[in-house]
DNA sequence: CGGGCAATTGAAGCTCGTCAACCTTAGTGG
DNA sequence: CCACTAAGGTTGACGAGCTTCAATTGCCCG
């Protein structure tokens, strides 16, 4: 891991991210004042469950996976964060201890924000507090969505749901590229890689073709009915 | 559903709840200024997924279940809120739309707080904003915990984990009473009632006895190893 | 004592995880 | 240009774990 200062490109990514987007410029630059940038290789562990954690992270490039470990060493993914996502914010309110592990899935650049300072800024600036609440809310929703899908849907249905989530409304014919390896998608959906493979096979009958990372939907209706 | 004003007992429950506990008195009474109380029978639906929702709820007595519906009518529990818990707060930040259904599991009294007003108060009062962030964080964690347990643990392990969560540290012999029907516990753990039953059977061999709603642990170590 | 509901138990079926083998692709070096 | 390798992905076979349905037991409150 190397640490750097913030360059202008990084700054653009930060300001364009979901969290900073709606903040007034003054608030943003107050936060960005002492941001540090770090780079990580694929498979690098960013922090581990239970460790002290006094920073909040924003993905400048690459991909980060949040997961927990079972007693037997098995891993369960909680979330996957692409470029522009802020994560690690919950430690801020839970005694500065990480509640999960974080790992870089690809070569990744992170912006690191001091959480104590951010919290102080949130006290002084209602807009920042509001942005934080929206972020927490979004993350809570993501987890609840996952939980509900895990409990209500079968593997092919979860995959169908993921595909539909990437397909604009009112279009029957559509194609898009997975933003990561199938491996990662499987983890995100709570499936073994083999199960994901079989799910794709099952969806072929409903007009889904998969070539490498490219997914084509030929009949949106059929997917929705699945 | 009947609606009432706030009496002194309700007020005590509110002020003693996790959310209000740490708030300065001025902030609390500002919020409680226009609180309304409503009563509900067992099985009453409090609100439904997708409905407009401009209130936040606090359980004064009884029990509330948050759940989502699958296409086939099956239900997946997201959370169960006992007395003193605040819920429905996420709608505040997501366009005032409920993202799940809520149902009274028992005869229940709710305090209803206008969410627009609460949000305004949060802007003006950093302590309220902070309490909200902690609440959101706790709820996010609860969902993540559930998700991780669902994915990492078998049914008996999840039940063991639930029992251990109700058993103070450093004690080998312990007994407590379930705060709700086994039915509800099954839902909370993402199990069919039959599966919960079988899980209890399996745990008998590890020193857990169940009589009605009373659970006895005779060997904490054995449970932890499970 | 009996009705009704929760809880338990049994049997059957389905979904998914696991293990192993195989295929495909890309990258490497002769 | 082609053989070789390595890693991701796919397929098959099998078993574990949970759901479902059905029947039974246990329990509370009339």
Report what the structure shows.
The structure is a homodimer of 226-residue chains. With 226 residues, chain A is α+β, with helices and mostly antiparallel strands. Chain A has 2 domains: 2-142, Jelly Rolls; 155-225, Orthogonal Bundle (Arc Repressor Mutant, subunit A). In chain A, 42% of the residues lie in helices and 25% in strands. The first copy, chain A, has 9 helices and 12 strands. In chain A, the strands form 3 sheets. A 5-stranded antiparallel sheet of chain A has the order 1-2-9-4-7. Chain A has a 4-stranded antiparallel sheet with strand order 3-8-5-6, covered by helices on one side. A 3-stranded antiparallel sheet of chain A has the order 10-12-11. In chain A, a hairpin with a 5-residue loop joins strand 5 and strand 6. The first copy, chain A, is globular. The mean pLDDT of chain A is 94. Chain A binds a DNA duplex (30 and 30 nucleotides) through helix 8.
Which key features would you list for this structure?
DNA-binding; 5-stranded antiparallel sheet; Jelly Rolls; homodimer; DNA binding (chains A, B); transcription (chains A, B); about 230 residues; 4-stranded antiparallel sheet; Crp/Fnr family transcriptional regulator (chains A, B); Arc Repressor Mutant, subunit A; 2 domains; 9 helices; alpha+beta
